[in-house]
Amino acid sequence: MNWKAVAAAVAMAGMAFGSVTAADGTHDARVALMKQIGGSAGALAAIAKGTKPYDADAVKTALTTIAATAKVFPDHFKPGTETNDEGASPKIWENMDDFKARAAKLSGDAETALAELPADSAAVGATLNTLGANCGGCHKAYRLSK
């Protein structure tokens, strides 16, 4: 059995499950979506650092997950859900257009990287720097400190 095909199928099933469980806009659903992005970023980081060998299929899966999840993430911050999430700043609802634009940029940058698939661990590292800057900027603006 091809382990890469199995891993890709599991990742896609996880994305589908995450979309279903995240549909209610609760704190737990938002955390689940962020964990999908974080897990994918972690997979890319392992390749960039050399702790995992370069694997084009793993890079594709991670970038696809980030692009798809970032695209739907803002949809889970509907008006009236401000009190459901102790980690999300009220600034999200005050600046929803900016919040959505930041998520769209992350998704777009992941899609661009997917189209120009990083060919080695150094290129994965450069891609991760771009994606990480998107994540960090949004977290700085819209995530409450724990």
TrEMBL record:
It holds the Pfam family Cytochrom_C_2. Binds 1 heme group per subunit. Residues 1-22 form the signal peptide. Gene3D superfamilies: Cytochrome c/b562 (1.20.120.10). One of its GO terms (biological process) is electron transport chain. It comes from the Bacteria. The keyword S-adenosyl-L-methionine does not apply. Keywords: Electron transport, Heme, Iron, Metal-binding, Signal, Transport. InterPro entries: Cyt_c/b562, Cyt_c_II, Cyt_c_prime, Cyt_c_prime_subgr. One of its GO terms (molecular function) is heme binding. Heme c binds at residues 135, 138-139. Transmembrane segments: none annotated. One of its GO terms (cellular component) is periplasmic space. This is Cytochrome C556. It comes from Rhizobium vallis.
